[in-house]
């Protein structure tokens, strides 16, 4: 069977790292040994390769090297060509494997445009305009690339790896386009051993169906469905801590949970439904995200009695309380690490992996999973907790002493899904409808079944990318953001919540913009942006101090309590409605309908603007019942 004729590509290439070199020389070798948990493989093409292109799927393809064999296995899956790779060590020694790259090659570069839907970099790219051998690499773990202007059928190229994270990159070489997915696969493979890695899917779009809806339906057919049985997610989330904010060094309040509970009625009046409490567990002086024993509430915050009081007060007010779990592990000297050495990931030399001055736990370990599930269940019983933000939910560092049936890099995606499920199962065990928010930077399918609200960091990254347009060209800003949101709405599964925020504890203090929204957009501009994230679909979140800058030691900033109260009252009208339909206006007005009933108009510019018969003041918002 000719792959090109049926699937729109001219063949496949690949590369594999083995004993410190890449065997086909497709990519520059990139050692994964010292990567951090948030880093993906770098896709850097050499412009040369020493293996033939694979273009016959009838018999599969076998590639033999001096130390190993690579076998590609093909099958058709719901209208797509599915490609898996099997690696066998044929030598008489242990081989160190370091990354495996699938590369789908197209030879019709003229006119081809591609994008990474619901991811960054945002926007559409013209393949013929790429500088040769210069990669456009997705900024987050990315499972979908779409080509939407080929001479043949529209083409989607997907990758799903249930063991480890991966990098995605596209480059041009002469008249070829290369779409590569590099799995962060690490293993020591013994003589005669075989492992499989990843699955790439090449799928022409079904005629008459939206390309991204087609991908969504395909992913559902593969069995990756959104979770059920969780809490409703249409309210407002507030992220906070009794000692204040990250950008104030957790030194602006210094309240225990007894005192902090006095703030709950005010938050409820402002419209808060879900309260994400940053870690209050016993921790060392490195900070709240360096928890020791998460079963112990730190005495600085009033201990167990204060936590019980706080949880009872939240329940009384109808506020869903979420704890922020930190599964990456404690300081290596803590009894939890010392007493459970098999829970801790090891380097190739057998020493412990350390990150952030903490051990890196292997979330695959059944003992650690049981500990974590019981932790969540215990907090549900003792403190009325029924939800969780899960820190580092993409897993930990590679464990070179893995459990049977696992490879070192299984401590990434495979383990992240397991720890997220363990926490969620702890709440379900107590008969609750959980609200779980894994810190997963991009919505890849393996996480769908364990996620009630997707973290939404991809949208925040888009805000960062297009920020330079906000003041000089608000119309282009609105158009760029709208195009991205349209893609997201069509690609992500129906029923999955999406967190929407302009900043969190990390981004206001030490990463990305390192500023509050009012500093980035100006006070009025920030209000327009908060109106946008509050009125589109999803779960809006504000970070402690957004409403009152005194909470992060800024006495001169604007108090926005009244603004948020009014905005979230307006949001109640549209929150239960399904469906956001975006309307391109060609102006700074960001327009959309909700549920076919309400029209929302948000002016992202500093001058009065008109849309049809409606006038919107500078940086103002209007909500009309029009249908």
Tell me what the structure shows.
With 627 residues, the protein is α+β, with helices and mostly antiparallel strands. The chain has a domain at 3-221: Distorted Sandwich (Beta-galactosidase, Chain A, domain 5), CATH 2.70.98. It is built from 13 helices and 30 strands. The strands form six sheets. An eight-stranded antiparallel sheet has the order 3-4-5-14-11-10-7-8, with helices on one face. Helix 8 links the parallel strand 20 (385-390) and strand 21 (435-438). Helix 7 packs parallel to helix 8 (413-429) and helix 9 (457-466) packs antiparallel against helix 10. It is globular. The model has no long low-confidence stretch (mean pLDDT 94).
* Separate helix tally: 13
Query: How large is the radius of gyration?
Result: 25 Å
Biggest β-sheet: strands ordered side by side in the sheet: 3-4-5-14-11-10-7-8
| CATH architecture term of the domain at 3-221 | Distorted Sandwich
* CATH hierarchy class name of the domain at 3-221: Mainly Beta
CATH T-level fold name of the domain at 3-221 = Beta-galactosidase, Chain A, domain 5
Anisotropy-based shape: globular
Main structural class? alpha+beta
């Amino acid at each position: 069977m000719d792959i090109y004729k049926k699937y729109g590509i001219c063949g496949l290439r690949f590369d594999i790292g083995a004993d410190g070199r890449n065997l086909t020389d497709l990519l520059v070798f990139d050692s994964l040994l010292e990567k951090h948990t948030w880093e993906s493989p770098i896709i850097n093409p050499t412009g040369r390769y020493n293996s033939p292109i694979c273009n016959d799927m009838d018999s599969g393809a076998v590639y033999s090297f001096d130390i190993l064999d690579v076998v590609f296995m093909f099958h058709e899956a719901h209208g797509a060509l599915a490609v898996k790779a099997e690696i066998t060590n044929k030598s008489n020694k242990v081989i160190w494997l370091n990354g495996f790259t699938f590369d789908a090659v197209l030879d019709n570069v003229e006119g081809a445009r591609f994008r990474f839907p619901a991811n960054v970099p945002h926007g559409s790219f013209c393949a013929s305009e790429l500088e040769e051998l210069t990669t456009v690499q997705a900024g987050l773990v990315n499972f979908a690339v779409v080509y939407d202007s080929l001479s043949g059928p529209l083409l989607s190229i997907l990758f799903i790896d249930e063991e480890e994270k991966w990098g995605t990159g596209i480059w041009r070489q002469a008249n070829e386009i290369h779409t590569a997915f590099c799995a962060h696969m690490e293993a020591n493979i013994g003589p005669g051993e075989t492992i499989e890695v990843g699955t790439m899917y090449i799928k022409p779009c079904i005629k008459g169906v939206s390309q991204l809806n087609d991908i969504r339906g395909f992913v559902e057919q593969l069995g990756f469905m959104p979770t059920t049985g969780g809490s409703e997610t249409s309210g407002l989330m507030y992220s906070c801590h009794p000692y204040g904010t990250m950008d104030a060094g957790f030194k602006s309040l210094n309240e225990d949970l007894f005192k902090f509970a006095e703030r709950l009625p005010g938050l409820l009046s402002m419209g808060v439904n879900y309260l994400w409490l940053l870690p209050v567990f016993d921790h060392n002086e490195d900070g709240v995200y360096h928890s020791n024993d998460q079963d112990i509430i730190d005495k600085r915050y009033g201990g167990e009695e204060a936590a019980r009081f706080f949880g009872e007060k939240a329940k009384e007010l109808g506020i869903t309380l979420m704890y922020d779990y930190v599964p990456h592990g404690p300081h290596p000297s803590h009894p939890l690490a010392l007493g459970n050495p098999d829970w801790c990931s090891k380097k190739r030399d057998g020493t412990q992996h350390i990150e952030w001055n903490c051990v890196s736990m292997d979330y695959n370990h059944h003992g650690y999973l049981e500990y974590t599930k019981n932790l969540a269940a215990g907090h549900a019983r003792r403190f009325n907790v029924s939800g969780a933000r899960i820190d580092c939910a993409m897993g930990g560092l590679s464990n070179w002493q893995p459990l049977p049936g696992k490879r070192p890099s299984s401590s990434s995606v495979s383990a992240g899904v397991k720890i997220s499920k363990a926490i969620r199962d702890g709440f379900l065990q107590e008969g609750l409808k959980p609200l779980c928010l894994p810190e997963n930077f991009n919505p890849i399918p393996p996480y769908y079944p364990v996620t009630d609200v997707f973290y939404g960091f991809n949208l925040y990254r888009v805000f960062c990318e297009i920020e330079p347009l906000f003041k000089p060209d608000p119309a282009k800003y609105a158009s760029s953001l709208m195009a991205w949101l349209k893609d997201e709405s069509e690609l992500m599964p129906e029923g999955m919540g999406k967190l929407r925020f302009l900043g969190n504890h990390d981004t206001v203090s030490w990463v990305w913009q390192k500023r509050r929204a009012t500093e980035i957009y100006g006070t009025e501009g920030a209000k327009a942006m908060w109106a946008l994230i509050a009125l589109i679909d999803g779960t809006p979140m504000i970070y402690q101090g957004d409403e009152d800058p005194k909470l992060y030691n800024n006495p001169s900033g604007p108090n926005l309590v009244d603004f948020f109260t009014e905005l979230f009252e307006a949001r109640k009208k549209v929150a239960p409605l399904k469906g956001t339909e975006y309307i391109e206006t060609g102006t700074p007005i960001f327009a959309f309908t909700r549920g076919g009933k309400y029209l929302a108009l948000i002016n992202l510019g500093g001058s009065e603007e008109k849309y049809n018969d409606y006038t919107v003041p500078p940086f103002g918002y209007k909500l009309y019942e029009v249908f």
